[in-house]
């Protein structure tokens, strides 16, 4: 079979040579930015905005914080005001969420509970953040033997059953707000330390860190300027997931009688009180705190998921 | 492999020892003796009681005695219920709690994996969104809320199932459901994400190109690899189920170990608190150990014996 030569059917184009003009390179055009350059955080924010579920979670959380601050103020009833005539009233126009067995307004108490629950969650997450980042950062950056010893310790702590330790400490220290936060942070930072350490271990070998080192940058500056910003994504996600788990742990402890003690109220202690009366039909006493615990955990979880996707550099476009 | 197992075994024992020590000294740092709050007992009785519980010995001797009792698996008598020993309580409560825990774990694993597979196969479809909404709700609703909702609706309003106690399989349904939703949701989310990742792998495309049936691709090639992350969380899930049993057993009046544990906390019955804590920790650490070993066997890419040669 004869091979066909490609140019055989080629028609000679009839273009005069003077049509060919070298393109003048326009300096400004070449450097014009086609798409606005976005920083990592702008890009992440843009992607988070597109995630409807995460935005719904964020909106609810903002509303919740606003209500936790102003709720007790706008409510016509004081949270501690006891009126035994108003015992266990169902929700009405006067008491929007009903009243409890001491005649206290559940609406006011719900926002008081929101304060405590959010406080426990945020403080626990912040303490985890501080200890975890420092510990994990040092272990990951030092590497070698120091890392080995530090991580062995973390491994042992990680093996401890979290809630059991929390229960033990609460039994020993006596229940209270401080005890709960202390007990939650004593083992809680371990997860954060593991994440930060893994990230730092990986990033410290990247070229830009090496370049920084060759310039003679101080270690503290490398950690602050190169390593931490690049580990921020997973850290933020971990913190968003720590808050609901701390809120849950607090509710769990309140349930065992080791949580917040009166006159303070948290959602956990309110739900726990309400639980005993559920069979007598006072559903609102369990419903409102339980509803807000669930909705808050839901919001934090979807926000955490959304942040995870938004902050993942692999998904960046 | 053997070297790895030995290493893990040692780490396991160290953790356990740490827990025993921690528990012991924490319990003994509580001010006051367990007999202080009782009705005024006369001094000889008090002395005898203290002698009986070895409370008159120095702390370090008590610690030694406690270590010995743990090694010989004898946790001693309860302080508040003097006719019972901790061992008797564990012996009575553990089978019940174990039953509840295992059934819950099985229900959670099977339903969670099924939900996860369905969600991954119908990625971004209605079934995916439904399954994931169920999953996020399952994570968000605390198990004690779930338990009360179930009691209120299913047991009280509809009257289909018994409200509480633990006598027949029918009684097991509600507590198991309440306890299983959380772990199920976690497993479903994990299965979905790792399944989605596995489905984009080259070997899945190869399997498709070979003309394998979808069922075979999913179950033989995709699922096996997708389940590895699920195996790793089994240990911590077992932990959360176990602590969940405290609450669930309290709500449903199930005579398990959790009930004794919660009671002992409320009554500050230190031998029982210590005994149950150590027992719980031992089970959990054992679970984590088994999960690690299982993971090594399931995933050929992990060489457990890599330290052997070096």
UniProtKB/TrEMBL annotation, chain B:
One matching Pfam family is BPD_transp_1
Membrane spanning residue stretches = 9-27, 100-121, 133-152, 172-191, 226-248, 278-298
- Give the originating organism: Cytobacillus praedii
Report the PROSITE patterns cross-referenced here: ABC_TM1 (PS50928)
Q: Could you say which protein family the record assigns here?
A: Belongs to the binding-protein-dependent transport system permease family.
Show the InterPro entries listed in the entry. Answer: BPD_transp_1_N (IPR045621), MetI-like (IPR000515), MetI-like_sf (IPR035906)
Q: Please give, as recorded in its UniProt entry, the membrane topology of this protein.
A: Multi-pass membrane protein
Please provide, in alphabetical order, the Gene Ontology terms of the cellular component aspect for this entry.
Answer: plasma membrane
By what name is this protein known?
Answer: ABC transporter permease
UniProt KW keywords: Cell membrane, Membrane, Transmembrane, Transmembrane helix, Transport
- Primary subcellular site in the record, as a coarse category: membrane
The answer to whether the entry has keyword Glycoprotein is no
Q: Which CDD domains match?
A: TM_PBP2
SUPFAM superfamilies referenced in this protein's UniProt entry, alphabetically: MetI-like
Q: Which Gene Ontology terms describe the biological processes this protein takes part in? A: transmembrane transport
Q: Does the keyword rRNA processing apply?
A: no
Q: Kindly list the places in or outside the cell where this protein is found, as annotated in its UniProt entry.
A: Cell membrane
Q: Where does the ABC transmembrane type-1 domain start and stop, copy by copy?
A: 94-295
């Amino acid at each position: 079979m004869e091979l066909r030569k490609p140019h055989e059917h080629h028609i000679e184009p009839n273009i005069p040579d003077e049509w060919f003009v070298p393109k003048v390179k326009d300096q400004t055009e070449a450097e014009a930015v086609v798409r606005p350059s976005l920083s990592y955080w702008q890009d992440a924010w843009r992607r988070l905005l597109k995630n409807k579920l995460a935005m719904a979670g964020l909106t609810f959380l903002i509303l919740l914080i606003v209500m936790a601050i102003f709720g007790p103020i706008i409510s016509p009833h004081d949270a501690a005001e006891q009126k035994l005539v108003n015992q266990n009233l169902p929700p009405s126009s006067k008491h929007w969420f009903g009243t409890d067995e001491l005649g206290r307004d559940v609406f006011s108490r719900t926002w008081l509970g929101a304060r405590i629950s959010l406080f426990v969650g945020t403080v626990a997450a912040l303490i985890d953040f501080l200890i975890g980042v420092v510990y994990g950062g040092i272990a990951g950056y030092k590497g070698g033997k120091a890392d080995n010893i530090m991580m062995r310790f973390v491994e042992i702590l990680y093996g401890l059953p979290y809630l059991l330790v929390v229960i033990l400490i609460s039994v020993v220290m006596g229940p209270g707000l401080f005890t709960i936060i202390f007990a939650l942070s004593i083992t809680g930072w371990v997860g954060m330390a593991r994440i930060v350490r893994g990230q730092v271990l990986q990033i410290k070998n990247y070229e830009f860190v090496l370049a920084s080192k060759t310039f003679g940058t101080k270690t503290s500056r490398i950690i602050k300027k190169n390593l931490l910003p690049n580990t921020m994504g997973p850290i933020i996600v971990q913190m968003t997931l720590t808050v609901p788990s701390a809120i849950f742990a607090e509710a769990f402890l309140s349930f065992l009688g080791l949580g917040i003690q009166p006159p303070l109220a948290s959602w956990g202690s309110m739900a726990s009180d309400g639980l005993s009366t559920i069979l007598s039909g006072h559903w609102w006493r369990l419903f409102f705190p339980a509803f807000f615990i669930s909705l808050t955990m839901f919001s934090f979880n979807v926000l955490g998921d959304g942040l995870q996707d938004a902050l993942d550099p692999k998904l960046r476009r | 492999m053997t070297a790895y197992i030995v290493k893990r075994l040692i780490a396991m024992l160290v953790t356990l020892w740490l827990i025993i020590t921690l528990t012991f000294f924490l319990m003994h740092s509580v001010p006051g003796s367990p007999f202080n709050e009782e009705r005024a007992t006369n001094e000889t009785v008090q002395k005898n009681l203290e002698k009986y519980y070895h409370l008159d010995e120095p702390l370090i001797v008590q610690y030694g005695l406690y270590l010995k009792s743990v090694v010989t698996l004898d946790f001693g008598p309860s302080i508040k219920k003097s006719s019972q020993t901790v061992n008797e309580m564990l012996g009575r409560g553990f089978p019940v709690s174990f039953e509840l825990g295992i059934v819950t774990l099985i229900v959670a694993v099977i339903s969670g994996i099924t939900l996860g597979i369905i969600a991954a196969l119908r990625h971004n479809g209605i079934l995916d969104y439904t399954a994931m909404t169920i999953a996020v709700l399952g994570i968000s609703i605390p198990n004690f809320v779930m338990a009360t909702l179930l009691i209120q609706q299913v047991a009280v309003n509809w009257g289909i199932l018994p409200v509480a106690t633990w006598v027949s399989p029918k009684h097991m349904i509600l507590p198991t459901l309440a306890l299983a939703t959380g772990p199920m949701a976690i497993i479903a989310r994990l299965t979905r994400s790792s399944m989605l990742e596995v489905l984009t792998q080259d070997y899945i495309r190869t399997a498709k190109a070979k003309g394998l049936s979808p069922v075979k691709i999913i179950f033989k090639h995709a699922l096996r690899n997708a389940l590895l992350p699920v195996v790793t969380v089994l240990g911590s899930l077992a932990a959360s189920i176990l602590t969940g049993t405290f609450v669930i057993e309290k709500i449903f009046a199930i005579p398990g170990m959790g009930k004794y544990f919660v009671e002992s906390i409320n009554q500050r019955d230190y031998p029982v608190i210590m005994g149950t804590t150590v027992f719980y920790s031992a089970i959990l650490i054992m679970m984590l150990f088994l999960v690690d070993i299982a993971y090594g066997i399931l995933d050929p890419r992990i060489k457990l014996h890599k330290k052997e040669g070096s």
